Amino acid sequence: MKLLTYRTSTGLRTGIVTDKGVVPVPHSVEEIVSGGQAILAELNRLAKSEMEDKWLKEEELTLGPCLPKPGKMICVGLNYRKHADETGSPIPETPILFNKFPNTLAADRDEILIPHNSKQVDYEAELAIVIGKTAKRVSEEEALDYVFGYCTANDVSARDLQFRTNQWLLGKCCDGFSPIGPYLVTADEVGDPDNLGIRTYVNGELRQNSNTSDMIFSCREIVSYISQHMTLSPGDIIFTGTPEGVILGYPKEKQVWLKDGDEVVIEIDKLGRLTNYMKQEI
């Protein structure tokens, strides 16, 4: 199942994406994620209904973040072998974790502000995991059973702020620095999350072109590892790291940072294309 949210005069609504259009549903994404099989069965019935006169055209909708109210936002750094190589970093022995906050959320086709005090804003294509069941000290073998689904994400990073100290948070948590979407796709439709093509285009130019199989720590390893240290709850989201091809990895003389008017497209197999536009903050 493929879910999205869209903006209305009364707030965000949720829809199911089908070949014939978007089916509005009377539940928030958060209710669906935590609702288990019963609510998914109800949504499947709605998606197969014949009330096509009530269905919406996706191209006419203004989308919201596919998970508007996440719980914890946990990120894994340096989780692709070739990305670690391009930045001159050693391969981590355990996952490097940091976090983001809800102020960073943005949606497909939103403008992303380049902060007035940063000159080195970068893209990071990432597969994001959405937790569907409470997970505490789960094994790697069982870890994916706790996943509701996946979405495309961009871990936008202000590198000059990120490396101002040895804590990365400042450069990761500017407003709008976590666009996600356009869809939240259930795990059953995705299949193996560790074998998905992942790409970034800037103004149509291919910048990142990799596969989640290059991750150092797989999705099941990440979920299990985090659950050994903190309880994961339905609606928590995990950014799993970015592959090689970020601006930071270019030789310094070739580093052209994101600028006003740039179009950034993140694309992951089975999850869709996430498009955003950079705008200089005044």
TrEMBL record:
It comes from the Bacteria. One of its GO terms (biological process) is carboxylic acid metabolic process. Residues 72-276 form the Fumarylacetoacetase-like C-terminal domain. One of its GO terms (molecular function) is isomerase activity. Keywords: Hydrolase, Metal-binding. Belongs to the FAH family. This is Fumarylacetoacetate hydrolase family protein.
